[in-house]
Amino acid sequence: MNEPETGAAAGESIPDIPTRIRTGLSAGFRTSIKIIKVSVPLYVAVTLLKGTPFLDLLGEVFAPVMGIFGLPGEAAFAFVAAFLLNLYAAIAVIVPLHLTPFQVTQCGLMMGVAHNLVVEGGVLSTTGARGGVLTLCRLVIACAAGLLLRGLWSLWESAASWAMAPPGHW
Amino acid sequence: MDVLLPALLGALKLSAKLILIIVPLVTLFEVLRYLPVFRRAGNVVEPMMRGVGLTRDAAIPLFTGIFLGIAYGAGIIIRVAQQKGLPARELFLMGLFLATCHSVIEDILIFVVIGGNGPAILGVRLGLAVFLTGLMARVWKPESEVPGIR
């Protein structure tokens, strides 16, 4: 094997393949534990709360905000899970809510930009960048991305309905 | 109880699905990430990075963040950023790009598993990241840039 480019990864030696597989599997295992610990309780909680006055009320309160992005009010709960915890937590909330494919895509997009804000804000500050500013940016960008996808989606839908319309409709 | 059991079953099924994606993905990444191809990739992406105001020094932390994510790639991002002494402008631009577009493989796959549209998510995030970072790179000019050079 050639000498690794110096500077690219200064001081990082290259482990052999079995070591890498072990590292990967153990990292995957740790993530799995994290997934189970977070998703199982949340999924069960949302399933049990679904249809109760509590979740309905929460949905009604957030319906105007979530509606901007084409989402039902209950999705606000998933956003809280995504912001404070991580995407696995958000997914555990989304699945029992039975959203449409567009709504799942919208959640994936917006939460993909803004999630795990507490931990990742800390990491971003350590690089010397302004962690607080970047976290605020992520929330703003998430909203912008959500509006963009909503717009693109309605364009797509109207284009599709024109294409589906019988000839002579216009 | 007849509500709890299906709920628990659904929760475990979802966890299993997510784990079946994550474990092979992380392992594959660990195996592949030392390949020389990825080290040389810096040359190929350099022109693209210039477009969003970044230099080669930011390539490794940027791509680590794009593929691995901010939390998981934190070690590499912080170490390289300090080693290379990236200027504040580049740190900000890199942070902005990564804020919009990070951990793309894992984050998108887990939403595809539950019924989302992967290309739509990736397209909007990548497009928005390039647009915003490119825009800010033009707003915040590098200090060394003498007026009239371009």
How many structural domains does the protein architecture of chain B include?
Answer: 1
* Total number of helices of chain B: 7
What oligomeric assembly is this protein in?
A: heterodimer
First-last Cα distance of chain B: 71 Å
Which structural class should the secondary elements of chain B be placed in? mainly alpha
Helix and strand string of chain B, N-terminal first?
A: HHHHHHH
Characterize the overall form of chain B.
Answer: elongated
What structural class do the secondary elements of chain A suggest?
mainly alpha
% residues in beta strands of chain B: under 5%
Overall form of chain A: globular
Describe what this molecule looks like in 3D:
The complex is a heterodimer of chains A (170) and B (150). Chain A is an all-alpha fold and 170 residues long. Chain A has one domain. Chain A has helices at residues 17-49, 53-68, 75-84, 87-97, 101-113, 117-126, 131-164. The N and C termini of chain A lie far apart (66 Å). Mean pLDDT of chain A is 84; it is low at 1-11. With 150 residues, chain B is an all-alpha fold. In chain B, 73% of the residues lie in helices and 0% in strands. In chain B, helix 1 packs antiparallel against helix 6 (104-113), helix 3 (59-68) packs antiparallel against helix 4 and helix 5 runs antiparallel to helix 7 (118-139). The relative contact order of chain B is 0.11. The mean pLDDT of chain B is 83. The chains are: A mainly alpha (170), B mainly alpha (150). The interface between A and B is large, with 65 and 64 residues.
